[in-house]
C-alpha cells in the first residue's frame, strides 16, 4: 500500500501501484520522505559514504513480518533546480523522480541505460498498465 499525505488529491498514487504490479514487485509499502539538500546530503554520507548531492535515495527494509518496505527520500531542492535546468514543471520532475525511486527499489541501477528507458516508458501518458 502506498500512502500520500498531501493537502490535495494526488492521483499519481495509482500510477506507482500499477508500476509495482507491472514489474511484479513484492513491496507491501512505500514511504516517500520529502527533504532538502542538507538532509539528503547527510543521509547520503551516513548510509553510502558519498558526499555527492542527489535527488533521490532509496532504501529497502523489511517490517516485523518480514515483508518488504521501501523508503524513498526525495530532495525537493533538487527537484526545483532540475525542473528549471531541464525546462520541466516542478510536478513533471517530481513524477520522474518518484518513478526513478520506485525503479531503484525494484532493482534498476543508475549506471544502466535500462532505467532511463523504463522512466520514459512509465512517464508516457498513453501507457495504461493493467
Structure description:
With 130 residues, the protein is α+β, with helices and mostly antiparallel strands. It has five helices and three strands. Strand 2 (56-62) and strand 3 form a beta hairpin. The longest helix is centred in the last third of the chain and has 17 residues, at 90-106.
List the helices and strands and how they pair.
Elements: H1 12-22, E1 27-35, H2 37-48, E2 56-62, E3 68-75, H3 76-85, H4 90-106, H5 113-123
Parallel strand pairs: 1-3
Antiparallel strand pairs: 2-3
Helix pairs in contact: 1-4, 3-4, 4-5
Order of helices and strands: HEHEEHHH
Rg: 14 Å
* Principal-axes shape call: globular
Mean pLDDT: 87
The termini sit apart by 17 Å
- Please outline the major beta sheet: 3 strands, mixed
Poorly predicted parts: none
Structural class: alpha+beta
Strand order of the largest sheet: 1-3-2
Strand content bin: 15-25%
The DSSP helix count reads 5
Quantity of strands, as a count: 3
How helical, in percent, are the residues? Answer: 40-55%
Please tag this protein with its features.
3-stranded mixed sheet, 5 helices, single chain, globular, alpha+beta, 130 residues, 3 strands
Could you give a short description of this structure?
This protein is an alpha+beta fold. Helices cover 47% and strands 18% of the residues.
Amino acid at each position: 500500500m502506498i500512502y500520500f499525505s498531501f493537502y490535495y488529491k494526488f492521483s499519481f498514487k495509482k500510477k506507482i501501484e500499477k508500476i509495482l504490479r507491472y514489474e511484479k514487485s513484492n513491496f507491501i509499502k512505500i514511504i516517500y520522505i520529502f527533504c532538502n539538500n542538507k538532509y539528503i546530503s547527510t543521509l547520503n554520507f551516513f548510509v553510502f559514504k558519498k558526499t555527492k548531492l542527489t535527488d533521490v535515495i532509496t532504501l529497502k527494509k523489511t517490517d516485523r513480518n518480514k515483508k518488504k518496505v521501501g523508503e524513498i527520500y526525495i530532495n525537493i531542492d533538487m527537484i526545483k533546480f532540475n525542473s528549471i535546468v531541464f525546462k520541466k514543471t516542478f510536478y513533471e520532475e517530481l513524477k520522474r523522480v518518484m518513478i526513478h525511486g520506485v525503479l531503484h527499489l525494484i532493482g534498476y541501477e543508475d549506471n544502466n541505460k535500462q532505467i532511463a528507458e523504463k522512466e520514459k516508458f512509465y512517464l508516457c501518458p498513453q501507457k495504461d498498465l493493467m
